[in-house]
Amino acid sequence: MGGGYTTNPDDYSLLEEVGYGASATVYRAIYLPSKDIVAVKCLDLERINSNLDDIRREAQTMSLIDHPNVIRAFCSFAVNQNLWVVMPFMAEGSCLHLMKSAYPDGFEEAAIAAILKETLKALEYLHRHGHIHRDVKAGNILLDANGVIKLGDFGVSACMFDTGDRKRSRNTFVGTPCWMAPEVLQPGSGYDFKADIWSFGITALELAHGHAPFSKYPPMKVLLMTIQNAPPGLDYDRDKRFSKSFKELVAMCLVKDQTKRPTAEKLLKHSFFKQAKPPELSVKKLFADLPPLWDRVKALRIKDDAQLALKKMPSAEQEAISQSEYQRGVSAWNFDIQDLKFKASLVQDDDENEDTKEDDVNPTSSVNNDASDSKTACGELNSASEIVPSDEVAPAESLSNEGDAPESNMLDKGSILEKSITKTDQLPCTSDKDATQAKTRVLTGRKRQTQSGPLVAGVVLNHSKSERTRYLERSENESSQSIDKIHQVRKAPSFSGPLNLPNRASGNSLSAPIKPTGGYRESLDEKSKANLVQIKGRFSVTSEDLDLVKDIPLSTVPRRSPQDSSLRKSASMGDWIYDSNKMPIPRDNNSSSVHSNLPASFLMPHLQNLFQQTSLQQDLILNLLSSLQTAEVVEASQNGKLPPLPRTSENNGSVEVSDRERLLLTKVSELQSRLTFLTEELTAEKLKYLQLQERVDAITSREEGQKGDADA
Ligand SMILES: Nc1ncnc2c1ncn2[C@@H]1O[C@H](COP(=O)(O)OP(=O)(O)OP(=O)(O)O)[C@@H](O)[C@H]1O
């Protein structure tokens, strides 16, 4: 396809490596027939949680794109286990690499304004054409030698108007956690192009500081912080250098309620961009005195690798991998759950406290964000809990002074405060990222063993009032103290822990609640709104969802093992991906008619039964989740429910502690497997329920039609 470039790999001579990410290495290359310099992005298909068709489609989309601020693919083709995407060479690489090489504390405001404005133009174009980029970040903002700015990397973009499987997969977890909007991180809540606006806001902070907020934390922790903490902003002393309009722009983008975020079109009219100079003036000088891109990238690679080489201890090595990946800002769209848990354990408390002051909490968030923001799509997060820095105690009383929130709301707030990640179990890191320096032209696949599993950590679950009250009483500080205690006992940093779960829930799903009148519904584009069938609790059932369910004849929804499930977990983060290959498809559209002749009265008891089962299973899952919380394990231990930690005078208890930890870890692993299994079952039940409901609706409307005909 396109652009006068052939799809014959022999026509390309790959030169230096000019970039690398989670799934790809990018080379400067010569297109031999014309001697054009191009960039060839070699995507390692084995590392991509997506099938070849999806990626091809993505590349095709890229090739259709025609905007000066969006990178266009000239062509793409498969080479062994790789997909090569040929695109214009952007001689100065990404903003991320530029910052890493020369501006570790970020750019000056004039350059930021130019970069953001061009990026926004790209987003406005993409959104207008129905695309969600889904991976807006400095690493994907590319610069050429003239200061021209283009948004690249459609690795994870989705088409909003697409009606096929890709649209369904919008409920999956792809992207890079630091930049991801809260609604994207909460399975099931649904998101749209406004997710890009959030990422755009995070990118603005990244350009201002040299790194994204929370970037030093492992993905799982970032995920929790994004969901639970106040949106980050430009509110610290170090941000005094920035103008009011820049701060305001960032605050407008980083509103948790997606419906309250402005569109790209609107943002372009913001006063911040009025005085933005053309990028040739403000951006070009950023790289005037720097060595060529490939030398910079090489230096960065060497730095990364040196970091790894320095640390020979297994745990330290893991830490280095974790840190370097995050510092490089790679995408984490192929998460390995075990790996995440492990990495979540690697951040030292000291770091945490320090970073908490800087990144985690936005002291003026309650000002920056619309008050109603706190009660919408993001798990009813609230300003009261959000504005309390996690390193300052937030006593229950102070919450109740926060204003006029009703009591129930306050209880939710309290429960949300229970938010630390514990770091107490030891799970093997299954990732084999080795940061190899091999500059192979054809990338060899580095298999990541990904484990399916629900994103239980990000789940916001329902608790009884007493439980919630208990959580309210247990301040965030207390919980972090208990974690500190664990750490005092446990010295080995390689021991990671079950992720502590936010303790709030609603009755019927593992995802955050969506207000029936707000959140997702309001943010749906017109087309999606038209498709909206109903909102049940937090479930927004669209006709597309029903399409999905339609494909599954009731009798063929088996109780299945996780392995052969046609609904597989996204390797990323616990959302369900529909695997059309495994899902039985009815031969004809009339296959449901057998069932649809059943009277509603016959179906109702079944529906009720299913509903009951679902609730029971949810309770069970809830219990399992609770038992996964290390804080509670510790508490129990202190209450004497678990055998006390043995100590000897010689080893001060360290050997026994390890044994005990292993024991607990085994238990945690078991529970997690059970949880995964139960979650699958639950989803199967939900699908059945939806299918039945659809049929009831069909019967009802047919009956009504018949009645109408009879009346007529
Ligand atoms: N056309 C290009 N010209 C020059 N450099 C490029 C080009 N495209 C990408 N790069 C460089 O390569 C890096 C990695 O590319 P890209 O982001 O597409 O890969 P990825 O594996 O999808 O990365 P990520 O993990 O960030 O999503 C970019 O950050 C950028 O520095």
From TrEMBL:
ATP binds at K41. One of its GO terms (molecular function) is ATP binding. Residues 348-358 have a biased composition (Acidic residues). It comes from the Eukaryota. Residues 362-375 have a biased composition (Polar residues). Residues 468-477 have a biased composition (Basic and acidic residues). Belongs to the protein kinase superfamily. STE Ser/Thr protein kinase family. STE20 subfamily. Residues 668-695 form a coiled coil. Residues 347-454, 468-525 are annotated as: Disordered. Keywords: ATP-binding, Coiled coil, Nucleotide-binding. This is Protein kinase domain-containing protein. Gene3D superfamilies: Phosphorylase Kinase, domain 1, Transferase(Phosphotransferase) domain 1. Residues 12-273 form the Protein kinase domain. PANTHER family: SERINE/THREONINE-PROTEIN KINASE FRAY2, SERINE_THREONINE-PROTEIN KINASE FRAY2. The keyword ATP-binding applies.
